[in-house]
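Duplicate of #3305? Posting structure anyway:
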């Protein structure tokens, strides 16, 4: 060596064997160990010389590569030794590895560019790369532009080796080449270089997913499951999974080799296992933003390779990605799938990509993997938007059943008690406002299909939530059919979620009178399912016996009576259901609520807004409701919201518009078909069986009205007689249901005898099979046949409603369940029923007579009790959002004049006490008349004796000690002590 040769050059040259010995060493090309130790010692103690050492090694690599390409074996051996020296320097100079990094990646890029097919050279280059990945902190990536560019190129080249496909390769050589690339990729996955730079993560993720995902997508599902299990059982990658948290001194760089003598060649399963292992580590180390980038890169890879047809493998990947991702970042995966779905252009025929994406979403939601931080309301809103888009393009699109299943799958995981109710509210909101979707309403078929999809999704949401809850408790899901006894037993398996309120269904009940039978049928089936398994049930809904009531307290019995009289959201919905079923049976007009103005006298909370009758007019310029074209209205924004007050008002107006076509009698102009009468029977049967007490009290007067509507005059036309006959058959079946529910054997025998005489003349068709949560093909109705007068069924006698009323009023079980005597039942069940009255009863109004239980403090009972002594401050007490205390009681006893609250000291409102309210709404359009009993103003009595009587009735006696009540009523206590 020349005397003026620099020291760092001399140290590097000394590591190479003599030129004559390079070829003799064969494949075991290693630097001299002693000289290599001197080189590493020099580099470790002189960090400033590392750049010069790297530059010299870079020159040698460039020269050796250019010669090796031409077949120079001596240059190839020299290249292997140079790469070994670079690897050793990277390991020994780990604390100063950033100084060596530019030269290291220059060497790797040059080697891979010149010799990408030399497996031994590539394996050694992968070892160098893995050593750098092990000890770097990653901060040089994104800072040094040249280094970053070389790094990304090297990562891309190793990723390409992971999917090496060359005809000259046999299977063993192909698998070895892939494993070398996978080893380098695994080094990247477990390196800080991948995760430190936010801007450089995306290009790296694109290379990594394109390297790892194809092995999974191309694999057979059975082999995929086996390799996954092997990966779980293998403890090898534990160190790689933990090394990022280890200090540099404890890290160990893996050595990659192409072949070991005596080793059996790797199989495709080995390659697949390595891919699964690397991909799992990639998701485990990523945060939410990085997980989003990985999913987007996966979609790009599937696009590039056109692998969307591999639906099963894609679903497997989506579900495993959720398992691999950190607990708090899993929500990013379904969110990205939905975003991708929305970004796919619409086409008349759905693509395999869309089907696969929806399948991936459903698989993620129905898996056992919890998904925290997931915005279910945003997901369902976006899916509904996608449903609307697809029905506009193609109402019979194959993607719609999959979207319905995906919407329903959101109920598989319930993370808070009101989740299902919130999602159901979103779906019901879209149902009530679907007529304002201009794009959907351009075709009747599109509108009907959109409604049916949302109904199926709504029902599936409730069904799956209970199904998964029952599966977790090893309890079967409640059946959707059966008698009242079995239906009550189904509630032994109660989910922790809140039951869907009747208010949510209340706003969609107009669909019972939709102009499309497929919509009416699906909605009736969904409503029956809700009544069977979801409607909130209370103790009053049970058909109780004497022994059940014996142990009950008087307050419990009073609460039940109050509940039946004032009701809840479910009771209000029952009133509305009966009104719309009556309209369906007798109306000559059926249609949506589109084009109907909101009534000016009805507000969302049931209070009146203006005086006068409801204005029910058709919007100027709108086409008829039965036409195929829709109104052009602004689209509803895609976000979570409550029911629009204007939409709810339109529904109320719709009901009153239908009233204009009701004559009180069935006729040939009525649009109800035999299928509609079968649906009416189906719904009313569910009501009477599932909520027998409330169903009887709210529904029996309506059945009496139906009986009156079925009475036709002699000489009526064939269509009228057919409808009257079908309605009588419905009533007979309902009398039979009532008799069985209330154990009225006499009624059952009489009705069964009447039905036996009807055998052979039944006109009602069978209800089609129905699977909750599944979008079935649209059902077609069965119309009344054209019959002559001679062919019409003859008249037949059926039990009259008066006879049924007498039997029910004398039934002990009915009296005990309703807490009414025989005369009370006759008055209640025999009261006149009208559609207007039922709709009025269904409106939510402030309730000042809420039932209170035994455990309620006595002070809370003061407010309703003091109503009896005409306390003018009662309204402020009952409407207060804060608790009732002693100060409130003192103010109530002293009256408004002595109240310290300035609000209570004002002049009493005469608009609610002595005058007819200008805001009170009445179905007939006339304000309520002033009650004569209240027209005379009475003085406020606050005598101590009367107050003491009130307190005694409430159970509030004399208290001892420092009781607040004693301090508040000193005069009363003195009189008691005398």
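Output from current build:
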């Amino acid at each position: 060596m020349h005397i003026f040769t620099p020291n760092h050059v001399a140290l590097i040259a000394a590591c190479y064997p003599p030129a004559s010995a390079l070829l003799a060493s064969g494949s075991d090309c290693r630097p001299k160990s002693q000289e290599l130790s001197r080189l590493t010692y020099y580099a470790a103690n002189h960090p400033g010389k590392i750049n010069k050492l790297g530059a010299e090694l870079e020159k040698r690599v460039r020269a050796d590569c250019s010669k090796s390409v031409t077949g120079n074996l001596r240059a190839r051996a020299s290249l292997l030794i140079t790469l070994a020296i670079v690897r050793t320097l990277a390991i020994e100079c780990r604390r100063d590895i950033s100084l060596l990094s530019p030269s290291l990646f220059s060497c790797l890029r040059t080697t891979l560019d010149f010799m990408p097919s030399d497996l031994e050279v590539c394996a050694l280059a992968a070892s160098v790369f893995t050593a750098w990945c092990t000890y770097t902190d990653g901060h040089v990536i994104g800072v040094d532009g040249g280094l970053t560019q070389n790094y990304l190129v090297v990562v891309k080249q190793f990723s390409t080796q992971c999917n090496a496909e060359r005809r000259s390769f046999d299977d063993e050589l192909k698998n070895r080449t892939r494993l070398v690339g996978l080893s380098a990729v695994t080094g990247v996955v477990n390196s800080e270089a991948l995760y430190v730079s936010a801007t450089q993560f995306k290009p790296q993720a694109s290379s990594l997913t394109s390297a790892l995902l194809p092995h999974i997508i191309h694999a057979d599902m059975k082999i995929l499951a086996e390799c996954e299990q092997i990966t779980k059982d293998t403890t090898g990658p534990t160190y790689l999974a933990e090394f990022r948290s280890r200090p540099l001194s404890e890290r160990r760089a893996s050595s990659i080799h192409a072949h070991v003598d005596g080793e059996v060649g790797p199989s495709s399963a080995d390659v697949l296992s390595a891919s699964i292992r690397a991909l799992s580590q990639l998701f485990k180390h990523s945060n939410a933003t990085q997980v989003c980038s990985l999913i987007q890169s996966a979609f790009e890879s599937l696009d590039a390779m056109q692998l969307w047809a591999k639906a099963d493998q894609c679903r497997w990947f989506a579900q495993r990605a959720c398992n691999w991702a950190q607990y708090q970042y899993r929500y990013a995966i379904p969110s990205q799938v939905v975003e991708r779905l929305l970004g796919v252009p619409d086409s008349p025929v759905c693509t395999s990509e869309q089907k696969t994406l929806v399948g991936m979403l459903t698989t993620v939601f129905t898996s056992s993997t919890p998904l925290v931080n997931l915005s279910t309301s945003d997901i369902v809103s976006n899916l509904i938007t996608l449903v609307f888009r697809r029905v506009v393009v193609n109402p019979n699109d194959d993607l719609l059943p999959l979207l319905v299943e995906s919407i329903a799958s959101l109920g598989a995981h319930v993370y808070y008690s009101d989740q299902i109710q919130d999602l159901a509210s979103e779906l019901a909101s879209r149902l009530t406002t679907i007529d304002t979707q201009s794009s959907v309403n351009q075709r009747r078929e599109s509108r009907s299909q959109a409604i049916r999809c949302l109904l199926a999704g709504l029902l599936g949401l409730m069904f799956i939530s209970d199904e998964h809850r029952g599966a977790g408790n090893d309890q079967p899901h409640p059946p959707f059919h059966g008698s009242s006894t079995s239906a009550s037993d189904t509630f032994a398996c109660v989910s922790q979620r809140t039951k869907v309120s009747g208010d949510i269904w209340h706003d969609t009940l107009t669909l019972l009178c939709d102009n499309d039978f497929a919509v009416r049928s699906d909605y009736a089936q969904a409503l029956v399912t809700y009544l069977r398994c979801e409607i909130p049930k209370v103790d009053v809904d049970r058909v109780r016996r004497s022994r059940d009531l014996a142990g009950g307290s008087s307050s419990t019995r009073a609460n039940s009576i109050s509940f039946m009289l004032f009701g809840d959201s479910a009771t209000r919905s029952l009133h509305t259901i009966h009104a719309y079923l009556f309209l369906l049976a007798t109306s000559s007009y059926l249609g949506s609520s589109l084009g109907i103005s909101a009534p000016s006298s009805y507000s969302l909370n049931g209070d009146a807004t203006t005086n006068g009758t409801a204005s029910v007019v058709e919007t100027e310029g709108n086409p008829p409701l039965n036409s195929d074209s829709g109104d052009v209205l602004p689209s509803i924004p895609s976000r979570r919201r409550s029911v629009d007050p204007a939409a709810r008002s339109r529904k109320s107006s719709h009901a009153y518009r239908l009233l204009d076509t009701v004559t009180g009698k069935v006729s040939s102009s009525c649009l109800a078909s035999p299928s509609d009468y079968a649906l009416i029977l189906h719904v009313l049967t569910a009501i009477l069986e599932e909520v027998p007490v409330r169903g009887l009290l709210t529904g029996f007067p309506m059945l009496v009205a139906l009986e009156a509507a079925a009475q036709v005059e002699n000489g009526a036309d064939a269509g009228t007689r057919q409808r009257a006959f079908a309605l009588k058959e419905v009533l007979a079946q309902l009398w039979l249901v009532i008799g069985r529910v209330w154990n009225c054997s006499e009624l059952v025998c009489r009705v069964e005898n009447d039905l036996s005489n009807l055998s052979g003349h039944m006109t009602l068709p069978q209800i089609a099979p129905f699977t909750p949560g599944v979008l079935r093909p649209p059902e077609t109705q069965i119309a009344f046949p054209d019959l002559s007068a001679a062919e019409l069924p003859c008249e037949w006698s059926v039990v009259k409603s008066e006879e049924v009323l007498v039997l029910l009023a004398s039934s002990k079980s009915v009296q005990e369940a309703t807490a009414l005597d025989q005369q009370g039942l006759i008055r209640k069940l025999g009261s006149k029923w009208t559609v207007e009255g039922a709709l009025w009863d269904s409106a939510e109004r402030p309730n000042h007579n809420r039932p209170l239980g035994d455990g309620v403090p006595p002070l809370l009972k003061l407010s309703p009790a003091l109503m009896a002594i005409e306390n003018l401050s009662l309204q402020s007490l009952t409407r207060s959002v804060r608790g009732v205390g002693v100060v409130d009681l003192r103010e109530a006893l002293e009256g408004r004049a002595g109240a310290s609250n300035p609000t209570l000291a004002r002049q009493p409102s005469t608009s609610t006490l002595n005058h007819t309210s200008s805001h009170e709404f009445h179905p007939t359009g006339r304000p309520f008349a002033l009650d004569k009993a209240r027209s005379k103003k009475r003085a406020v009595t606050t005598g101590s004796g009367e107050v003491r009587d009130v307190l005694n009735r409430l159970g509030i006696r004399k208290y001892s000690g420092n009781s607040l009540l004693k301090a508040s009523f000193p005069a009363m206590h003195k009189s008691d002590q005398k």
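Confirmed duplicate; merging threads. The CA atoms of residues 431 and 582 lie 22 Å apart. The chain has 44 helices and no strands.
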